[in-house]
Amino acid sequence: MKNKKTVAMLLAGGQGSRLGVLTSKIAKPAVPYGGKYRIIDFPLSNCTNSGIDTVGILTQYKPLELNDYVGSGKPWDLDRSNGGVHILPPYQGLSGEGWYKGTANAIYQNLEFIERYDPEYVVILSGDHIYKMDYSKMIKQHREDNAACTIAVLDVSLEEATRFGIMNTYEDGTIYEFEEKPAKPKSTLASMGIYVFSWDKLRHYLTIDEANPESSNDFGKNIIPLMLNAGEKLKVYRFNDYWKDVGTVDSLWDANLDLLNPNIDLNLADKNWKIYSRSNSEPPQYISDSSKVENSLVTDGCEIYGDVDFSILFENVTVEEGAKVEYSLVMPGAVIKKGAKVRYSIIAENVVVEENADIGGDPQIVGTDGWGITLVGANLNIGKNAKIGANKMIVEDVKEGEEI
Amino acid sequence: MRASAVSGLVFANANDKLLKKLTEKRSMASVPFGGSYRLIDFSLSNLVNAGVTNVGLITTGNYRSLMDHVSNGIYWDLDRKNGGLHILAPYMASDVKRFRGTVDALNAAMDFIDRCESDYIVLCAADVLANVNIGEAIQKHVNNNADITIIYHNGMIPANREDAMILTFDENDVVEELEFVGSSEEEQNYGIGITIIGRELLSNLVLDAVEKDLQNFNRDVLAKKIGELKVIGYEHKGFITLMNGTSTYYKAHMDLLDRNVRKELFNRERPIYTKIRDDMPTRYGIGCEVKNSLIGDGCVIDGIVKNSILSRGVKVEKGAVVENCILMQETTIKANAILDSVIADKNVVITEDMVVKGTDDRRIFINKNETV
């Protein structure tokens, strides 16, 4: 196996339980985003655009759809005979291998994979975030700093800092302490879950951590403190562009609608930093005489006869005459029938919303107390004239005329 | 039937001269169509949807854009170890100078025909815009133990198509006459340029035709074998357009604005595949107005678009008005420009406040990469 300078390891085994019914059948990185993408397209495209051509994807929770989606890695140009993309599921072995116990354990169990390429640097990524980032710049800083580990951080507000893993640093960006969700943050530099390790250091500390039965084998909780205690040089890498964790239904909705905000710089079509995705050949979208489409993203295969405003329609969505879709995401194959209304909602794949059904609530009308995005799970049928309020999660069919 | 039992041969340059402006720098097969497609997509998808996985693509010239589009056949699942897509580009051989007709073209593809080990070959002209159930036609060919099956359509023969053959059947549904009349006053059963034939039979017919210095395979070879060989027909009933001029090309686009035509042509059971381009979804701006239009991914629309077909990556800026137009890939309509009845080839730029108006019978064609 030819040596590689950098190998990326993408942690894609998380369930994303706060996304509710959206991740009941698929892993979080496979959740659809932005009309024709999935969350995992971001780290994968970033790798390709950063010149990293060897990527291990660690899967565990509901991997079927994710495996299918990644396939040979062709859409991201990662179908290589030397390197390329590799799905790394948990496996049985002679020395107690098995389910990944934590993020660090997942990498530990795949040291052999990294060994094959004997890289200088290992980049640890997660499949939970929407962002465009040039990892090669981060690696360059890591090399120039001669650090053992470099952690990408985002400067957040003091209030937000209580929800993140916070890096306390000296002025030169050297980390002296890591605090997980501190009640009284000393700094506002939040970890983005992106690490660059020098390969020998990573191997060394993963092995020590693994030998400790008390450890929960997590990068943030265990590996970073372990390295700090050992006096290793850990640095932050400051990132200032768009980055969003899409851990909850509301934040997923938010991150999608950000694509419609002219003040937010998240251009997925930027020729110098394209976000690639696996897509099918679908016919162009049709917008009829009776429809009104404004301030929205609409994808190939859609047939629009109704009104669409402030929304994102994924492939093959049908919006019939008189139907109205506002401030919503409608995922592939969903059908919104005549006269139905969908607002402030996420309609998952292949849902059928029957005639005159009414889904979701406008915060300006229902008030912001208890308001939230309504989520309708994949393949469900919402009966005629059914009424579903704001902040609901629908996990089974809704009968004709039913009110929820 | 084993996977390799049927191979396909596509004539990429079929009737190039009928779409002059569009084929100046490309073959008929790579003429853009319907927002996201090239004409070749229909032939290749029809074949692949019939389970044909070994396809030869006969090109005679102007094939750079075609190569770029079909690549190694991956978009049609034709990147195969066994079979797959074969580009049969012309090569300098002392005996073939320029193809005078389909016999020369087939003769140049003789290696492919002899090596493919299939029982049958489907010959396809790339100027056919239709979703044809070739699989069913092959089945009919086999069940009837036919020598040749011609896929035909019942309707008015398009103008300028002297190559259209009219089929007359006897009481057993076997073709008893093949005529070439150009046009006719009434509806006819005419061949649509897709023919199924035994491989060995094809090989023998071509060799014989070369020896006799014949040129046109349909007219000089097929038509002469009626009666001698068992030639049957398979009717394609749905939507079809044979390209025969810019106005037909334009009309076929407007036909796509009809939901039923789209349903037929982009049949979910037999999808039409094309090259994937990694565009973003199309972005509709605040205050834009889009009516009765077909739009590819990657467009940014801030102006008014009506009764038009926009390919991938087209930009219509604020205040611009586009009506009754076909705009191809990456065309940009700057602010307040007004366009009516225009066909703009790829990468055209219409500058600010510019007005370009054609009429119903005189549409304006703007060449590739031009700035107006």
Fold topology:
The complex is a heterodimer of chains A (404) and B (372).
Chain A: E1 6-11, E2 32-33, E3 37-38, H1 41-49, E4 54-58, H2 64-70, E5 84-88, H3 103-108, H4 111-117, E6 121-126, E7 129-131, H5 135-145, E8 149-155, H6 158-161, E9 165-169, E10 175-180, E11 189-198, H7 199-211, H8 219-229, E12 234-239, E13 243-245, H9 249-257, E14 285-287, E15 292-294, E16 296-298, E17 303-304, E18 307-309, E19 312-313, E20 318-319, E21 324-326, E22 329-330, E23 335-336, E24 341-343, E25 345-347, E26 352-353, E27 358-359, H10 363-366, E28 374-376, E29 381-382, E30 387-388, E31 393-394
Chain B: E1 6-11, E2 32-33, E3 37-38, H1 40-49, E4 54-58, H2 64-70, E5 84-88, H3 102-108, H4 110-115, E6 120-125, E7 128-129, H5 134-143, E8 148-155, E9 165-169, E10 175-180, E11 188-198, H6 199-211, H7 217-222, E12 231-235, E13 241-242, H8 246-255, H9 259-265, E14 282-284, E15 289-291, E16 293-295, E17 300-301, E18 304-306, E19 309-310, E20 315-316, E21 321-323, E22 326-327, E23 332-333, E24 338-340, E25 342-344, E26 349-350, E27 355-357, E28 364-366
Parallel strand pairs in B: 1-4, 1-6, 4-5, 8-12, 14-17, 15-18, 16-19, 17-20, 18-21, 19-22, 20-23, 21-24, 22-25, 23-26, 24-27, 25-28
Antiparallel strand pairs in B: 2-3, 6-11, 7-13, 8-11, 9-10
